[in-house]
Amino acid sequence: MHMQFVVLAKVLQSTHSLLMAGYVAFVLCILCFFYAHWPTIWIWGYFAVIFILIFSHLYVSIRVKLDAELLLYLAEHDPKMLNERTHDLDLALIALKLMPNSKAGRTWTERLNGCKRLFKLQIVLLVLQYAMLMMSLIQMLSGYS
Fold it and tell me: Is the dihedral of CA 21, 27, 33, 34 positive or negative?
């Protein structure tokens, strides 16, 4: 289990790079807006989608980064104390209202699967951001032909 913590934490630490790539897509989408000739109704929908995507991406990135840090913390300490540390972690997350009571006591397999799901969600959000960028570029280029 210790090595799984380390490996998954290292994978999750790439969240920063994914977030930066998301910021690049966001800025390029904004720049495309200034050059595209879209009907007014489309502009508001476009802005709503790109802002929802970037803020969702930011939120998920914060959650992934927290998971990475917690996994590294647990990996650096005595593996024999994992059950005790897990209980302490649950209590702390519940006290800070970062986790509902119903999620306390989950197995580490469930927790690690949750970490992986969040990371995959971040990748999906990034892909959606670049899909919006591609749509913006196509719209912009079609305005010039």
Answer: negative
Residue pair 12/115 in contact (Cβ under 8 Å)? The answer is yes
Q: Please answer whether residues 5 and 75 qualify as being in contact, where contact means their C-beta atoms are separated by less than 8 angstroms.
A: yes
CB under 8 A, 24+ apart: contacts of 138-145: 139/32, 139/36, 139/38, 140/32, 140/35, 140/36, 143/35, 143/36, 143/37
CB 57 within 8 A of CB 20: no
Cα–Cα distance measured from residue 71 to residue 108, given in angstroms and rounded to the nearest whole number: 11
Contact predicate 33/45, CB 8 Å: no
Q: Which two tokens stand for residue 38?
A: 């879209």
> Model confidence over 40-80: pLDDT tens digits?
777 788 889 999 999 999 999 999 999 999 999 988 888 88
CA count, 13 A, side-chain hemisphere, 109: 0
